[in-house]
Amino acid sequence: MLSVKNLHATVEGKEILRGINLEVKAGEVHAIMGPNGSGKSTLASVLAGNEKFTVTEGSVEFLGHDLLSMSIEDRARLGLFLGFQYPVEIPGVTMANFMKLAVNEHRKYRGEEPLSAAEFLRLMKEKSAVVELSSKLTARAVNEGFSGGEKKKNEIFQMAMLDPKLAILDETDSGLDIDALRIVATGVTKLHTSENATVVITHYQRLLDYIVPDVVHVLYKGRIIYTGDKTLALKLEKEGYDWLINEYDK
Amino acid sequence: MERIYEILGTFRKAGPEQLRVDAPVPTPYAAVDPEHLHVTLTAGAAAHLVVLHTTEGTSELTVELAEGAQLELTELFTAGTFSEMTVHQAARSCCRMTTVLLSGANASYRIDLAGAAAENNLGGVFLLGGQEHGVVKLHTNHLVADCRSDSTVKGVAGGEATGEFSGLVYVAQDAQRTDARQQSRNVLLSERARIETMPQLEIYADDVKCSHGATVGQMDADAILYMRQRGLSEAQARRLQIEGFVGDVVRRCGAEPLGEAVLALAAEKLERI
């Protein structure tokens, strides 16, 4: 589904990604871990198409398309979803209005008719249940005045609405209390099928108790320096990154 | 625009020179391109007046609210009209004003709060594009004690447009316990657009609550990125953001479905900025 080859990217002339290779297949869950500043969020941003970053080398194929040549919105419409670490507040724009536009843009891209008002409301109701998001929040302005937990739930709610092929969740667990973490993580698990894939970027093992990864990668200094199975996350939780980093820096 | 005329067609005609309202139950009135219009609401009367400006000419409106009168006043500009409005408010009267400039008009307001506990609430928006030049001038006078005023004017300028807001809140020496607020918030959509904002306070009383503030900013690039990541085009994301910015003011022009119709018109204008 996703094939990243030798991806290099810079921001303001500074190289952050220095040769990423990553293969994600349908039905898989990947976790990307690593110390602060290793390039995890940059990888997510570059895949989503954030124009702040410049790709200097490498290629990314997503569902048979050359991802790097596509606009941010076309990547999204093709089925790439990025759950933001810091979801943005958009004053005066209601969730319902925003999601209606988003859902219908996705449908248009696939050559489908826009949803009727009734169909859309039904979809909103159904999907907000996935993350126990109160219908009061969907009537409010996007993320405005939402608590940290509500913002993250809202990300997963939008993911449910848009039904992406590949969801990249950038530190969706940061700033969550235990209950919100459980709701968010269970929501992600509910949305997982054999047809889609999830890449979870996280610092902590605790999220992976709910979202069990098939593959765990460690990113360091802009490269994936180690790949293992779910037991790797447990080992990292217990022993930290030093044993890997020391080996790599040698 | 047709929708607006359609809605206004169901309202009573105000003028051409005079409108006098005695009824305590609010009735909607409309005035299109009035040159001189004098509006009087007698004690305890209530009305909703919509004024539409579609010509380049001048327009002079004087509004007189007697004790306890309540007026909902909506003004919409679609041409470079030069308009002056004076609102004189007696005790306990309440005037809620909404003004929307979709063109390079020049709109001046002078509001005299001349009776105790009078209240004025104003929401204004100007959306300018191309080479338009739009001006909103607001002069709120607190002449006696215990009055309230609250004004928010939002400006959006794209292309090479220039916008101007000047606001003065004057509080006379005897106008104790005045509660006055004035906000000017502006967004520039292009490098060459300009907005000048000059909020001023002139206070001679010593027991007052007054605040004012002004901001001029750009579009929120993070919000645009966020919306595009959810599949909206850049143009859609920009439009949605500006609609969100001005929507609360535009939608408030009472007497639905007018608010939505004006918002639709504003959205059309945004396509052209």
Question: Overview of this structure, please?
Answer:
The complex is a heterodimer of chains A (250) and B (273). With 250 residues, chain A is an alpha/beta fold. Helices cover 38% and strands 28% of the residues of chain A. Chain A is built from nine helices and twelve strands. In chain A, the strands form three sheets. Chain A has a six-stranded mixed beta sheet, sandwiched between helices. A four-stranded antiparallel beta sheet of chain A has the order 2-1-4-5, covered by helices on one side. Chain A has a two-stranded antiparallel ribbon with strand order 7-8. In chain A, a hairpin with a 2-residue loop joins strand 1 and strand 2. The mean pLDDT of chain A is 93. By secondary structure, chain B is an alpha/beta fold. The model of chain B has no long low-confidence stretch (mean pLDDT 94). At the A-B interface, helix 2, strand 7 and helix 3 of A face helix 2 and helix 3 of B.
Primary descriptors:
heterodimer; A: 250 residues; alpha/beta; six-stranded mixed sheet; 9 helices; 12 strands; 28% strand; globular; B: 273 residues; nine-stranded parallel sheet; eight-stranded parallel sheet; 18% helix
Q: List low-confidence stretches of chain A.
A: none
Strand residue percentage of chain A: 25-35%
Share of β-strand residues of chain B:
over 45%
Q: How do the strands of the widest beta sheet of chain B line up side by side? A: 1-3-5-7-9-11-13-15-17
Helix content of chain A: 25-40%
Task: Name the helix and strand elements of chain A from N-terminus to C-terminus, one letter apiece.
Answer: EEEHEEHEEHHHEHEHEEEHH
Structure class of chain A: alpha/beta
Instruction: Return the average pLDDT of chain A rounded to an integer.
Output: 93
Instruction: Say how many strands of chain B there are.
Output: 17
Largest sheet of chain B: 9 strands, parallel
Q: How widely separated are the two ends of chain B?
A: 17 Å
Number of discrete helical segments of chain A: 9
How can the largest sheet of chain A be summarized?
6 strands, mixed
Protein chains sharing the most extensive interface: A-B, 29 and 22 residues
User: What would you call the structural class of chain B?
Assistant: alpha/beta
